[in-house]
Amino acid sequence: MSTGPTSAGSSAPWTRWASLILAVLAVLGTTTLVLYSAGQPLLDRHAFRQTQTAITAYWFVRDGYRLAYETPVAGYPWVLPFEFPLYQAVVAALSQISGLSISLIGRLVSCAFLLLSIPVAASITRRLGLPVAVLVIFVALTFTTPVYVYWGRAVLIETSALFFGLMAIKYGLDYLLGSRSTWLLAPFCLFMTLCMLQKVTTGLPILMVFTALFAAGEARQSGWFERARGARGAALGVAILVPLVAAYAWTSFADAVKLESPLGPALTSSALTAWNWGTPGQRISYALWVDVILNRILLLNFGGIIGAGVITAALAMTAERRIKLIILTSVALGLLPLFLFSNLHIVHDYYQSSNVIFLTYGLAVALGALIVPGVGGRVGLALLAALMVANGFAVVKSGYLAAMLKNFGADNPHVAVSRVLARELPEDAQFVAFGNDYSATFAFLSGRKSFTVPPWFKDIEQVIARPGDYVEKGHLGAVVACSDKPDAMQLLEWTTAQGNWKLGETTGCAISVPAKPLPTAPRPGKCRGLVERASVVTRGGHKVLAVSGWSATNEAVAHVPEASFVELRGVNGSLYIADTLSTSRPDINRALGVSEDVDFGFSRLLPDEFPSGTYSLSIIQRIDGQDIACAPILRIVIP
C-alpha cells in the first residue's frame, strides 16, 4: 500500500493490491449507481437549482446558444444569466448529438467531470512526490464520500467547476515545483479562468491560496524583488489578474442583462451580496461550526472521528515538513470556502462538493504518506476500509441513497402540474405560475417558458391582475396557482373574465387554461368513468362548485378521451355543460392496468351561480371527434 522504504512499517504486496481493489470497487460502485439512477427526473434534492441549470441547456437546444442566455422562469424577455454557461453548453451539445434527454446527459456529464478528477489527482500526486498509495486512498475515499456519490451525478455545475480548479492546481504546482517556466502559468491562468467563470465560489478560494503560494515561493528565491519587476513578475500578475478580471467582466455583463427580466433586479450580484458572502456573525455561528463543519462535513463526509483522528495523528508524527505542509494546505483549501461564502454553505449542502475533495486529499496524504510508512500497510488498509464503511453508512444515513432511488410518479405535484401544462399548451405557449418560488421545475418538465412568480416579487398583485403582460404578447396559455396568493377563487374570477377558459385542480394546484369547444349534439353511448365529487366548497372565502372524477374510453385497453365534459341537468330542465381539466389519477391507472403516463382524472371549478335545486350529473366524452353522452351517474343538491 506504500511505496516507502522497507521497514517494520512497510506494507506487503497484498495490502497494496487490496487497497487498489477497494479503490476500483468504489469507482465502479458509484458509477453503477449513477447509471442506474441517471433517468430520474430532476426532482430530487435541490430540484430548484438542478432544473434551473437544466433549463438553460434545454433552451440552448431549442433556440440556439447565446451568452445572454435564457433562464425562462423570470418572465419575458426570459434572459437571466447566472454563471458562464460552460457546463450547460456541453450538456446541450451532447444532447443534440446523442438525442438523449437533457436530464440524462446532465447527470452523466457531471459524473464524467468527477471521473476526470482521477488522472488530474494522479498528476498532482506525482508532482508532489507522494507515494502511489496516496492516490489510491484518495480515489477510494472520494468515490465513497456521500457528497460526491450524490452530488457528483446532479445536474449542477459543481463537478465541472471543480475539475477546472483541479487542473489549475496541477499547472500551478508544475510551476512552483518545476522549472518555474513562465509558460506553465498560461495553462494555470486558462483553467483558473474557466473555474472562476463556471463558479466563482469554487475558484476564488483556490486562486487566493495559490496567490499566497506563488508569493511565498518567489520570496524564498534570491533576488526576488528584481525578478518581480521583470518577466516572471508580470507573468504571475497576469495569471492571477486575468481570472479575476474575467469573472468581474462576466458578472457585470450578466447583471446588466438580468435587468431586462422582471425578476432580474432582485437577482443581481449587488442585490445578493449578503446572500452570497454571508454575515460576520455566520462565520462564528452554530450553524456553520456545528451544522456544517461538524455534522455535514466531518461526521457525514470525512469518516467521522476516524478521519479526524488520522489527520491529527499524522500531524503529530515526526515526519518530513513538506508532507505536513501539503496536508495543511489541503485543509486550508477545504475550509477557506466555508468562511468566504458562509451563508451559501449553510443553506446548500451541495456547496460542500467544491471543498470536501481537498479535505479528502489531505486525509489521503496523512494516511498514505505518513500513517502507512509509520505503522504498516495492514493498519493502513484497516483504516481505509473503516473510512469507506463509515462513508457507506453515511450515504444511507444522510438520505442520499433513498433520494437517488426515489420514484417520482404522477402523484408528485411537479410531475402532475407539468404534465397538464405540456398537454394543454402548444409549444410556443407560455404560462404564469404562483406558489413555486421562482423554481424551474414546472417550466423545465413541461418544456414551456414561464414567469414563475416568487411570493417576494414586489409587483405580484399586478401579475395576478394581468398575467398576460409578463409573457410574450398573445402567448399566455395557462395560469397556475399553488398558493394562497392568488387563491383558487381569485384565479376562478380571472378565468371567468377571460371567457372561454376553464379552471381545475390537481395535487393542490389550481390551473387555468383555454377550454375546448363544447358539445352541441352528443349521442348516447357506453362510457367508463365516474363523477366522484360534486359539491359546493369554500375557496378564498367564497363558495364554488367543485367537480372531479375520472373518465376512460370503453375499450379493452382504456384510453383517455380527447376531452371530457360534465353535464349538469336540473329537474326544471336547465342545462349546463363545462369542459374539464384532465388530471393525474395513479389509482385509476393501476385499476385499469394502464401506464401512469396518461391522465384519466378530471377536475373543474365553477362559480356558485346555479339556482338552488337538484341536478343530475353525467359525463360527455369526445372520442375521435364524436361526442358521446353517458348515462347520469350522480345526483346533487345545490342549496
Describe the SSE topology.
Blueprint: H1 13-37, H2 47-63, H3 86-98, H4 102-115, H5 117-127, H6 132-142, H7 146-151, H8 158-177, H9 185-198, H10 200-219, H11 224-228, H12 231-258, H13 273-277, H14 286-301, H15 305-316, H16 321-340, H17 342-347, H18 356-375, H19 377-397, H20 400-405, H21 413-424, E1 430-434, H22 441-446, E2 449-453, H23 460-465, E3 476-481, H24 488-498, E4 501-506, E5 509-514, E6 523-524, E7 528-539, E8 542-552, E9 563-570, E10 575-579, E11 581-583, H25 586-592, E12 601-607, E13 613-623, E14 626-629, E15 634-638
Helix pairs in contact: 1-4, 1-6, 1-19, 2-3, 3-4, 4-8, 5-6, 5-8, 6-18, 8-9, 8-10, 9-10, 9-12, 10-12, 10-16, 15-18, 16-18, 18-19
Q: What's this, in brief?
A:
By secondary structure, the protein is an alpha+beta fold. The chain has 25 helices and 15 strands.
What does this structure look like?
With 639 residues, the protein is of the alpha+beta class. 52% of the residues lie in helices and 15% in strands. The protein contains 25 helices and 15 strands. The strands form three sheets. Strands 6, 9, 10, 13, 14 and 15 form a six-stranded mixed β-sheet that branches. A hairpin with a 4-residue loop joins strand 9 and strand 10. Helix 10 packs antiparallel against helix 16 and helix 18 runs antiparallel to helix 19. It is elongated, with a radius of gyration of 30 Å.
